[in-house]
Amino acid sequence: MSGNESRLQAIYQITNRDPIPAKPPKRLEELWATDVFTIGKMQESLPKEVFKSLKKTIQTGEKLDISVADVVAVAMKDWAISKGALYYAHVFYPLTNATAEKHDGFISVQSDGSVISEFSGKVLVQGEPDGSSFPNGGIRSTFEARGYTAWDVTSPAYVMETDNGSTLCIPTVFVSWTGEALDKKTPLLRSNAAMNKAATRVLKLLGHQNVAPVNSSCGAEQEYFLIDANFANSRPDILLAGRTLFGKASVKGQQFDDHYFGAIPERVQVFMQDVEEKLYKLGIPAKTRHNEVAPGQFEIAPFFEAANVATDHQQLLMTVLRNTAKKHGFVCLFHEKPFKGINGSGKHVNWSVGNATQGNLLDPGDTPHTNAQFLVFCGAVIRGVHKYGPLLRAVVATASNDHRLGANEAPPAIISVYLGSQLEDVFEQISRGAITGSKGKGAMNIGVDTLPVLPTDPGDRNRTSPFAFTGNRFEFRAVGSGQSVAGPLVAMNTALADSLNWIGDKLEAELGKGADLNQAIQIVLKEVMDEHGAVVFNGNGYSEEWHQLAAERGLANLKTTADALPVLKETYIENLFSELGVLSPVELASRYETYAEQYILSLEVEAKLVINMAKTMIYPAAVRYLADLGNTILSLKEIGMDLETETLEKVSALVKSMMEKVGKLSAALENHDFANSEEHMRYLAQIVRPLMDEVRDYGDSLEGEIADDLWPLPTYQEMLFIK
Ligand code: ADP
Ligand code: MG
Fold first, then answer.
1. Domains along the chain?
2. What pTM value is reported for the model?
3. Which atom of ligand 1 is nearest to the CA of 219?
């Protein structure tokens, strides 16, 4: 075995570790939601009237009475204390994709010096964390420094158990003193409300009298990598940037496809079971687990839930994965591209809309009139994705996701919709105006009954599309593995709301002109396809032909974050969000600034790391090797032997070139003269990133030349294959 000291140490630690034994399995009923203050627990512990009032708030979003909150607070506190919690925390979701919380004790000191535990409705409902250092894109300098958290009654409170004790966690929104959203939850709730309003209007136009509130749903498939912590800790790039900035491809990578859906390694399976037990206790319905395409890559997908709850649960799921990985000696990587040349990680966001009276509105159903309703909603999605495709691209734009989108493994940066052949055919018929005959069976028979019965799960699947219809929902596949799902859900809900309003207006106008509902629907759907059918694409999204065709169709191809984020500054996007009450222009601008800043900061950190690692790790290894080799050549010459000098020359040339590029990269980072963040982003994308890649190429070539026992960084082979 070769390898330098730190690598050998790491391998020794890993191969000699005591395996963590699998916990004896518990029954699901024993685990399920034990750490959640569920509706059931509320009902048990609250007076009837209080419970009724709270339930109404949860179901209809009606304002919560403070006297009700007081009673709920006491019940919640008693429950939390019975679970060993001494602290509570308002949990909120700042613009960083992370989860934030501020802990406060239940402790209250009395005048005689004794203490009691106390928790009032007021502190349950509202908190004031000192959140001034969260990114806010300038909102709070223009308005008011303080930020407030407010309980989101629709997402249940829970107790988070850690080795350091248990905490009652209360999901909240995070807003400025003047009500500007500083977080990701507030716009999500607003987008859902806008979508509900528009969907309700359309459902009524379609003839439904009884329409329950419409909610969006989300089921997110989470991909991640597991790397042994011993390796991660000796790689500054993984520690600080979450990905490898150097690393030569392993001779064996993923080309055998032997990892995908293969048997889960034992150590990983024990980890997964531990994760699932924690998730079940938190009421998170983990459902599938499997190996992913790359070695060391895995996936977990919970069953779908209401979008708001699913989003909170998604954040929790990432926290649980990260923390549990640590316990098992792993580091869990959510970076979209931790290893060059190996598949990256995404987060497929499955999304639909529906309600209690009409069910899933993106389910084709099996009767003609539900088909028509489905086609209206599906048509609305098609219009939304076409009109706001650049927005959908912008909400998945991060420095790390740039490595994945368009890199022949993940959907391209061009946003299109995949419908499947049968549905595409139906919409083509609509475009041609071929579906005409109403059989005239009264008002509820909203025609289109010449349509075939649509299958609920069309067998064909297209993995190359960024936005695919998958039987009864759409799957947005361009979302990055490390992202919060809130942004994508906000964009989808809002674009849909806009389209439904547009459809509502059109239907009303046609009906006003004397058309019957059947005709009106067909006219509107035809218009949708005429104007927006260009976004539908069923072919191979990875192909060169598609890139060309998409350009002809006028679809944007926003390759990098620097190209995509400025979409948020476009007037039509500003209008979309402000007209529907989802984000004010100030709130939108603050998001643009925050995300642009995050892009700039992450690229700068990476560039500095590249310089450091090249100078302090790779260069020293290379010169040591050169010294070794040079001395050997000289000594051999003395005794009359001749060793080739090719390797010496090659390594020396590589070192020289690498250091030249390092010099250029350092110089490039000295430039701080930018008119605005857009210019700065473009500079980093066009000048700095390519230089980083060039340094890396030389570094990786050196890895292929230098004696293995001098190489300081754990290799791809070691990180991906030693568990
Ligand atoms: P695949 O790997 O084939 O894409 P998975 O079974 O791994 O599919 O994940 C599908 C996800 O879609 C699950 O989280 C599932 O709960 C979710 N899903 C199913 N129906 C809906 C729906 N109506 N709305 C949102 N998500 C849904
Ligand atoms: Mg999927």
1. 24-183 (3.10.20.70), 185-217+346-439+463-557 (no CATH), 222-345 (3.30.590.10), 599-721 (1.20.120.1560)
2. 0.94
3. 14
